[in-house]
Design goal:
This protein has 160 residues and is mainly beta. It has a single domain, classed as Rieske [2Fe-2S] iron-sulphur domain (Rieske Iron-sulfur Protein). It is 4% helix and 35% strand. The protein has one helix and eleven strands. Strands 1-11-10-4-3-2 form a six-stranded antiparallel β-sheet, with no helix packed on it. A three-stranded antiparallel β-sheet has the order 5-6-7, with no helix packed on it. Strand 10 and strand 11 form a beta hairpin. The protein is elongated and about 60 Å long. It binds FE2/S2 (inorganic) cluster (FES). FE2/S2 (inorganic) cluster binds next to loops.
Length: 160
């Protein structure tokens, strides 16, 4: 069992492949998280279960949305940024004359929790970020994905 504030070995060297989208699903501190390989070899760690409605987000496809790498949830197609767990979306603007103006890109405040990752010679280490379930006074706001992170859910069944 891992404490929230400690680094934990999450994968052996080479266990997560080098291709974009290579991944590993695991439980740390009983929390469902996934390691996923991004562009340029970067490795990310996010809560596995989608903040929106408990879908299996981390089995989705990796794609660019507005120039930022995202994972697309298989259930309702929400894109979630690998770098910070935010959801980019297009916002329509109504002009004074009632017509629709150009849509602009915005970021949702509701977020998937992203954890810290360090890929070292001896493997991939993860440090879970502040977790309101464990420490309500910890730095960092609650994330919507917190409510799904420990649940028996459809996402879990698909991920396991
Ligand atoms: Fe709805 Fe993921 S569960 S977009």
């Amino acid at each position: 069992r891992a404490d929230v504030d400690e680094w934990v070995l999450a994968a052996r060297p080479g266990e997560v492949g080098g291709d974009v989208g290579a991944r590993k699903h695991l439980q740390l501190n009983e929390r469902f998280v996934s390691l996923i390989r991004g562009r340029n070899g970067g490795l990310h760690c996010l809560d596995s279960v989608c903040y929106h409605a408990g879908g299996p987000l981390l089995i989705g496809d990796v794609e660019d949305v507005n120039g930022v790498e995202c994972i697309r949830c298989p259930w309702h197609a929400y894109p979630v940024r690998l770098v910070d767990g935010a959801k980019p979306y297009k916002r329509l603007h109504v002009m004074p004359d009632g017509t629709l103006g150009r849509a602009s890109w915005e970021l949702s405040e509701r977020r998937q929790r992203v954890h810290m990752v360090d890929e070292r010679a001896d493997g991939v280490w993860v440090r879970l970020t502040s977790d309101a379930r464990v420490d309500r006074h910890a730095e960092g706001a609650e994330c919507e994905s917190d409510r799904w992170a420990y649940r028996e859910s459809a996402g879990r069944n698909v991920l396991r």
